Write the structure tokens for this entry.
Amino acid sequence: MPHTTSKSQVPVPVQMAQNGQTSRQPPGKDVSPSIIRVLVKTPNAQEEFVVSDDTTVSQFKEAISTQFKCNVDQLVLVFVGRILKDQDTLYQRGILDGYTVHLVIKSKNGPPPQPSGPHGPLLMDLGPREGIGKVVGNGGRQPIIPIRNTVPTPIPASEPEKAKAQSQIPQPRTAERMAQMLESPVIQQLLSNTELMRQLIMDHPEVQQLMKQNPEVGHILDNSEILRHTLDLARNPAMMQEMIQRPDMPRPPEGFWGNETNPGGDNALGRNYAELPDSLFGGIQDPLRENLFTEFMHGASSLGGTSHTQSQEKQDSKPMPRVLHNPPPGHPLSGPTPVAAAMDQCPSCHFQDDPQLLEDLSSGTRFTGSMLQLLVQNPHLAAQMMLFMGSPQLYEQMRQQLPTILQQMQLSDLLLALANPKASQALLQIEQGLQMLSTEAPALLPWLTPYLWGLGRSGFPEATAAGAQSKEASGPQGRGKTDTRYQPLAILQRLQALAGGYSQQMQPPEVRFRPQMERLRAMGFRNHNANLQALIATEGDTSAAVRRLKRSQAS
Amino acid sequence: MEPTNLYPVKLYVYDLSKGLARRLSPIMLGEHTSIVVHKDEFFFGSGGISSCPPGGTLLGPPDTVVEVGSTEVTEEIFLEYLSSLGESLFRGEAYNLFEHNCNTFSNEVAQFLTGKKIPSYITDLPSEVLSTPFGQALRPLLDSIQIQPPGGNTFGRPNGQS
């Protein structure tokens, strides 16, 4: 407490001008009461007060209450973390000129607002909200208010259901929050759209199917409140995220909805989402997520297919999501693919549609093997590629993936993107520009590192080694540009070459190796299949294939 | 003086660049902070002010815990205070990665609770970044980044919560 600071402005010997008030002052106060400016800060506003420093706190509060138009009882003054008591003086508490005192204006809960004028900012906020609740209640939202009161009661009932104690947030808070959400003006707007949304939902053929199978769904859809809340959920990524993180949590809505079904299958989807590596969400929320959600809404079927296999035990209370699973029973895509769907957006479309790619990937030819190895060892590298293709946020998410998933997903995208000459051209230009910068202005380097792909530097020796295994001719070209500080360029080009090679590989071996096959046949190797196998094994190297064939013939 | 209860106030610091190569992270604001008091953790994200049990966000336990001090402010008063903060200064949409982020919030709350600010190396980080031409260039991009550590419970308006 800064009691010891001296008031240099009035160095006067002992002078107790107003002794009566300051009877509690420590003996030896050597300055007369002086006027100080005190800043009173509320969360919403701040006001400056000019008072004498031996003003008592209670007097101060009176001045404040006049200024802020509230009751003295509502005021709580906090200074340096201490609550100021009425009988102290400002000086005693160490409040000097220019200091800031924090003010909290307590709201009045329960009892009606006092007739004496409007209350502090807090209550003014509370008022309109209650007003909304009541006004809208008249407009047919009456059920909301009683539900709000009943929300706390179902909560304890749903508590035992929670298997995870992942978050011990008091349940009423969640429910209250939801109730508050409903009261927000946003909901009012949604009201007008509910009809529209309901129409939209009903028009969806799957929904219609659902409704046939599960009449409760229809009941839900007809219930405007539930619809409203569902829409709000869908629109609010933050909330969705919360629900996702606590997949067992969203039980409060049960009590809220009054029945066991949970509309929108949001939670089913949310749970699917939670199945994904948690790091996917590394705390980052971005506009992209909106897209992911819309994708979910449309891709509900595919995700439903997977969630069916997981968390079965939760399904009892969710007839709707369970029904969702039925439409796509024989969905060909397996587990990792919804992961892909969730994380990638358009890039993954083609990947999803082409499981063949996956096969090609895992067909361990030496070429792809080395490529995979490259990526496995340098997932950051692959992720960095994505940086330019996607967005930083997406990239962030990517790089936290398991390397395998990463490589599976990224590989094709990577290569396909690289195969686009214009894209790799642009990348090259960026690299060149950065390289120039690195030589001209090394000071900028720390800030440029995200774009330097510098992380791969340590792994680059092995990357170069791995890349060197490829038989592409542009390898040496890349090497020519390599300098000790700037290997990414080489890697880029090498990868580009690999991309070219890979896309080449996508053609069936027969096509690719036709000239070699001809040659083999001319040499006298008649066995077409054996030739092909040999060529595949040797990556189209005719002489090696010949050796191989000879060996196999001899054995 | 009558005995008053003192509640410890802690600052949880999460180093977001831990495990990620710092130079790769487009999130140059490398630290997320939150205030822990009254056995609850409070932080500000793009969803507004949120709370959770200490260490209860997806980020897990904090990397550093800074003892800010102690406060007499009771939980009730604190929640009131947070509610009005959430209405005014710290609404979700007010979130800005550089200028009005979790650290801004932690600083504000720390001052309210204890009169002390949080360590300057945390609060200075955004302005440090912004002062570089690179930071300025990236600014529109980074402005759109919103951080909301999952696992928190968004702080609502006062509704008889306390």
Chain A touches chain B through 65 residues (CB under 8 Å). The two ends of chain A are 94 Å apart (CA to CA). Residues 172-245 of chain A form one domain.
